[in-house]
């Protein structure tokens, strides 16, 4: 599915949407429908051994489909997504969860700073809009998000309103600069790839987004969220040790020397 309505021009950046999918049969069509087709060139779905008809629906929609033979985890799914997008010549990669929790209609806003080469990544933030609970985000999840984001800002010495949104876009430069293949196969991958980018001088921006919490939308429960938070704290500790040359971690080293600013 190439050139989804975009004008064919060699000066345009090749924009690829990636969908890390697991049991997304009931929401995939809605998510696909809301993607602005004139803003993207390809849509890739990587299925992590779903137990429903996610693969069949993706193929019916004409998406570029890859499938894991066994369930490998959210982080592992992203690794495949980014690797395949880069192989297909992506200049910009936008992650859209196929559970319809994030509104893909704002993809053009996410893309704008990247298409102008003003930054290396753009994250959607539920906190920038001012009313994150309007989308029915659980209060405990909101408080945990704010708490962890404050600690992350203090450690990374940058300011982002949210580190835990799954709606984000990366430049090819960012993805080629970091060793995302060394990251976790679980949910903490999302924090690790940010830590890698900051360690290698990547510039990140945010835009305001809204989210929807409903039965079909995927969301980890309280116990798994606590474990996720502990793994984030472990990542931050490793980052501090690495930055201060106390203990170096290959995970935070640049994938190629010229990427560091």
Automatic annotation (TrEMBL):
The keyword Transferase applies. InterPro entries: Glyco_trans_2-like, Glycosyltransferase_2, Nucleotide-diphossugar_trans. GO terms for molecular function: transferase activity. Residues 17-177 form the Glycosyltransferase 2-like domain. The keyword Transcription regulation does not apply. It comes from the Bacteria. Pfam families: Glycos_transf_2 (PF00535). SUPFAM superfamilies: Nucleotide-diphospho-sugar transferases. Keywords: Transferase. This is Glycosyl transferase family 2. It comes from candidate division TA06 bacterium SM23_40.
């Amino acid at each position: 599915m190439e050139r989804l309505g975009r004008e064919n021009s060699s000066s345009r950046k090749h924009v690829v949407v990636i969908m890390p999918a697991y049991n997304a049969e009931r929401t995939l069509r809605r998510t696909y429908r809301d993607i602005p087709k004139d803003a993207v060139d390809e849509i890739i779905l990587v299925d992590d051994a779903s137990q429903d008809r996610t693969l069949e629906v993706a193929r019916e929609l004409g998406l570029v489909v890859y499938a894991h033979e066994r369930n490998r985890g959210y982080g592992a799914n992203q690794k495949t997504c980014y690797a395949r997008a880069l192989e297909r010549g992506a200049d910009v990669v936008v992650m859209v969860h196929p559970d319809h929790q994030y509104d893909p209609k704002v993809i053009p806003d996410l893309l704008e700073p990247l298409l102008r080469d003003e930054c290396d990544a753009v994250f959607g933030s539920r906190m920038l809009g001012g009313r994150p609970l309007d989308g029915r985000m659980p209060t405990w999840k909101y408080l945990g998000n704010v708490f962890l984001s404050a600690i992350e800002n203090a450690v990374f010495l940058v300011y982002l309103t949210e580190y835990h949104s799954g709606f984000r876009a990366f430049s090819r430069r960012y993805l080629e600069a970091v060793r995302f293949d060394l990251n976790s196969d679980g949910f903490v991958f999302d924090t690790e790839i940010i830590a890698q980018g900051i360690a290698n001088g990547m510039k990140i921006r945010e835009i305001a987004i809204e989210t929807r919490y409903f039965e079909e939308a995927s969301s980890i429960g309280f116990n798994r969220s606590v474990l996720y938070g502990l793994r984030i704290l472990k990542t931050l500790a490793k980052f501090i040790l690495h930055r201060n040359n106390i203990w170096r971690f290959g995970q935070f080293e640049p994938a190629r020397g010229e990427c560091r600013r």
